[in-house]
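Homework-ish question, so no full write-ups if that breaks the rules, but can someone show me the predicted structure for this set?
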Amino acid sequence: MAIDYIFPDYEVIRNKDRCISCRVCERQCSNGVHTFLEKENKMVSDDTKCVNCHRCVCLCPTHALKIVKSDNTFKENGNWKNSTIKEIYRQAGTGGVLLSSMGNPKDYPVYFDRILLNASQVTNPSIDPLREPMETRSYLGARPKTIQRDEKGRLINNLPPHLELSMPIMFSAMSYGSLSYNAHEALARAAEALGICYNTGEGGLHEDFYKYGKNTIVQVASGRFGVHKDYLNSGCAVEIKIGQGAKPGIGGHLPGAKILGDVSRTRMIPEGSDAVSPAPHHDIYSIEDLRQLVYSIKEATNYTKPVIVKIAAVHNVSAIASGIARSGADIIAIDGFRGGTGAAPTRIRDNVGIPIELALASVDKRLRDEGIRDNVSLVVGGSIRSSADLFKAICLGADACYIGTAALLAMGCHLCRTCMTGKCNWGIATQNPELVKRLNPNISYERLVNMLVAWNHEVEEMMGGMGINSIEALKGNRLMLRGVGLNEKELEILGIKHAGE
Amino acid sequence: MRIDAKELDFRQLGDELRKVSGGEVTIDNCLGQRFIASGMENLLLTINGVPGNALGSYLNGTKIFVNGNAQDATGDTMNDGEIIIDGSVGDALGYAMRGGRIFVRGNSGYRTGIHMKQYKEKIPVIVVGGSAGSFLGEYMAGGIIVVLGLNGGDLVGNYTGTGMHGGKIFLREKNAPQNLPSQVAVTKADESDMQEISSIISEYAKAFDLNEVEILDSTFWVLRPNTKNPYKRLYTQN
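A: Not a homework solution, just the prediction itself:
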């Protein structure tokens, strides 16, 4: 008979000379890794329960703990990796679909890391952002096609509704329910302080957060959780979620166990009831149908809010984006295959979709070729890890970027990828009140602000180095990019030259 | 107040309606204008003609009476109010509806009441006088759907209640409905079930001047979900 013992991937190493048995690790671990043995007066740990979130490592007052990768291994095999073998054991034991959290961790090429930026030398002097004004303010929305004047020759304001951002960054959609109340509060306050936006995700908007409305994008997904007239009108834009990079073609599903108290109230569904958001919107089977949802939202908000349509980056993304640009949507958000998630089937997350760099370059080109680029702004997400990724995305044609994982990291996430358990020791992806209060929104919001102020300054430095003083002059400026180690097809799709050319 | 919808496009008609803060409004010569009364509150709206898709989407308290048929996505994500259609209606009626009532005298198309939910005092209701198309109450999470079959023919199409995890569907027919998906349990409506819909039926009968006693003088079947957590056992943590 097969035995389903799966050797843990990581081991908890306790330095016995340093450990003072203060039991902090025991109290801090929601997974129950650490136990104190009264009789022997010592701490022990159960590696099988450890998710490698580093909570105990960070809080141990004597730094007695570390987590190391186990050297226990199956017979080495280039084809059958340890993780592949363990996944089979898990499925054989349970019959379940493998479920993972956060973005695709597999070793696919990261095109951002194969793209290099330009800078000025001698001619076209660079600009010092510390003494020259630099503009990173960004406006998202459709651009008017014509200049209209009244009979006296005065300009008629025919500008469609826009989002104004102090820098081309927004926090991507992460629902209240998947994230804790404190995490949402930190995101909302940081968005307000920075003059950017955060996004409710598809879990509705908590009543306490309506006051951050002018920095809030409210999302509408197939399940319509918490969607009502006041919700639509409370934010600065409405996002229709069609797809998500981590699970294109797959819907959302918050298990009933997490639908408690405020989460139930915000989603407007009873406690304990599953929140099922299937992938297809069953009222959208075509671009014409999408147009109908876009306009029903515009009618309900009296044409005062830009409407965003968010899709996952899939093979024919440019044709789909071309359709969306004709649907009346003001902004298209595209989420690459590395985008994060609270929970997604492993096989989908790791195998479906395409890299955001290629999707973005191809969509931007397609919309320009068809003369409809000004119908919409483009926002991309799906692993924007730094200001450099952001900068390169803008040169490839993005008007702004969504960041999710980076924002969670700033709040203290250690990327242990077990959000789906609801036992997040850092108080981010949990609804357990004891764990939620570990995340101090005052500190977390400051850390988010710190990170993005730094990113913005880095963007200004990079722009300055190129002799560019406005983010508008950077958009779609592919001459500022060069590829390294990319083949001709990749360069062609990215629309950039190879380094040295 | 009366609005002649002739040669108005949907946005012009919407602008006219948005000027009205409340009270009675009649739209004449309605011919397929979409999104009528989207998100509106406090109106008493009569529509003469055929409103287009997404009539009363996000409706938040308005009462709409349609003298004619309505089209697709009527009452999409409706939160409160009433839509009474003295005719038949297209697909996706009451999509993700959370509150209020929709009464249809004739038939409804595919995907009636899908994603319908309920929350606390908000229990949405759809009553279809004739028959409903396939996928009735798909992903239903709450609320009440009643299909009366007053015009004969098949009462419902295929796949009724697929993925249902809340709410109740009442079907008025002699024999127990067949070929239901595994998520759905069917029982004959007992007294307490009937009590739940008696006032609804009575108002429905009043709305269309029908005989309440005749409607109630039949067997009703109740469809309920087997579980409110249909996907609990599907996953293994990796």
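Now go work out the reasoning yourself. Hint: Chain B has a mean pLDDT of 94.
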